[in-house]
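Form P-L/3: holo structure prediction, ligand zinc ion.
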Amino acid sequence: MRLKIYTFFLLIPLCLGWAMRENNPSGAKIPIFDSTSGKIEEVEPVIKSEAEWRNTLTEAQYRIMRQKGTEAAFTGSCPIPPKGKSGIYQCAACGTDLFRYENKFESGTGWPSFWEPVSGLNIRLKEDKTLGMQRTEVLCARCGSHLGHVFEDGPEPSGKRYCINAIALKFSQIPDVSKTEKAIFAAGCFWGVEEAFRQYLGKGVISTRVGYTGGKTQNPSYEEVSSHKTGHAEAVEVEYDPSKISYEELLDIFWSIHDPTTLDRQGPDIGSQYRSAIFYLNPRQEKSARGSKEKLNAQGEFKGRIVTEISPAQEFYPAEPYHQQYFDKRGIKPACHLPQKER
Ligand SMILES: [Zn+2]
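OUTPUT (holo model):
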């Protein structure tokens, strides 16, 4: 009996840790408007520890988004789509759709300005009395990151001016339908993972490249990533034709080529750069990725619980040329990547 009680108390912090990792400590979902599907989706809030935020955001992003800083006027770069194209500005911390390019206007203030958010659901407003002013703070509804402020001196039709730090936004161009898509996976040493996806060249996979993503260092080198200080994972970016191979089929390949139950490890390769991760590029991919993980866990497909990280894609830094198509170029069979069939 005593053992059972101990086990119970031991399990509480373990479960809490697990929940934090899964970004859903309470289990309560929130409604967020998804501009790709045009629907309101129930999603888990993104909750991270300060250490995790420091690890995933750049120093400047952390200062502004998590410590409510403000970038100096006219210093932020806010990309705009090519002529005739459109796009969405998303939260740089969690990927939530925030503002449409169409609703951006030139305010002359030195900060990106919008007269309307994608949806009132996707932002949260909060009274801000700091600096001796009476302002309304704008936060991301999903991750709580500070974005900027909203003022009542904007243009018609809303009369509002959402004054947002450029560094808190990432731009996502609305893709043409029928075009190719990308997917990013991490499943241990990227030489073998790339090789596995290259088996589907001509069957829907158009190209692959290996690189580093999911961390904070810009343009990292292989040595820096190997030192575990960048937070990046060795990853593979797969360009594919969704009319020939679906994202769900790519997920099946991903799950079949590694052991997603070992934290920060694949076989003999140990370190966070070898972690199992899916970096989704849109809400559709996120939904499929989470769904497939839940399904495999429920089916008990693997011996242990799946620890695969599912996060919004950040900048993908291509690895050095000698890492690209490593096995193809050398005509050798994958050695560092061991497909895990032990289930
Ligand atoms: Zn966010």
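COMMENT: Residues 187 and 255 are 9 Å apart (CA to CA).
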